[in-house]
Amino acid sequence: QLHLVESGGGLVQPGGSLRLSCAASGATLDYYAIGWFRQVPGKEREGVSCIRNRDGMPFYADSVKGRFTISRDNAANTVYLQMNSLKPEDTAVYYCAAVTGFAITRGKLLLTPGDYWGQGTQVTVSS
């Protein structure tokens, strides 16, 4: 059974960078498409990025395109989310999950999560 653990969150000033990690155990990560979500209390969960399993192709929400980069290291069984030029509106709890489907509509990345989620990592962008 796939087990996911996020790390790398923290407090950063606007314009700064963070790299989130989603480390997998229990199964080989490259069998799964992995997505990053974020959620702010009281707001709807938002799909941020995902990486397709068969070819590693990345997908992004318009809100992060050009600033965030998703990648996977199969040897380390880990997916990363490099976040640059961070803005206060990027503040959220970030989760990784195996996804069973995704679509892009009107600039939003709609992710269909499967059964495997991490516990989340807090990202706070503030001066």
Describe this structure in a few short sentences.
The protein is mainly beta. It is built from no helices and eleven strands. The protein is 0% helix and 57% strand.
How would you describe this structure to a colleague?
It contains no helices and eleven strands. It is an all-beta fold and 127 residues long. The strands form two sheets. Strands 2, 4, 5, 6, 9, 10 and 11 form a seven-stranded mixed beta sheet that branches. A hairpin with a 4-residue loop joins strand 7 and strand 8. It is globular and about 40 Å long. The mean pLDDT is 94.
- Gross morphology is globular
Question: Could you estimate the helical fraction of the residues in percent?
Answer: under 10%
Structural class: mainly beta
Q: Strand content of the residues, in percent?
A: over 45%
- H-E order: EEEEEEEEEEE
Which residues form runs of ≥5 with pLDDT under 50?
A: none
Major β-sheet profile: 7 strands, mixed
Quaternary structure state of the chains depicted: single chain
The N- to C-terminal Cα distance equals 40 Å
* Whole-angstrom Rg: 13 Å
Total number of beta strands: 11
Please count the helical segments.
0
Overall mean pLDDT stands at 94
Sequence-ordered SSE layout with sheet pairings:
Blueprint: E1 3-7, E2 10-12, E3 18-25, E4 33-39, E5 46-51, E6 58-60, E7 68-73, E8 78-83, E9 92-105, E10 108-117, E11 121-125
Parallel strand pairs: 2-11
Antiparallel strand pairs: 1-3, 3-8, 4-5, 4-9, 5-6, 7-8, 9-10, 9-11
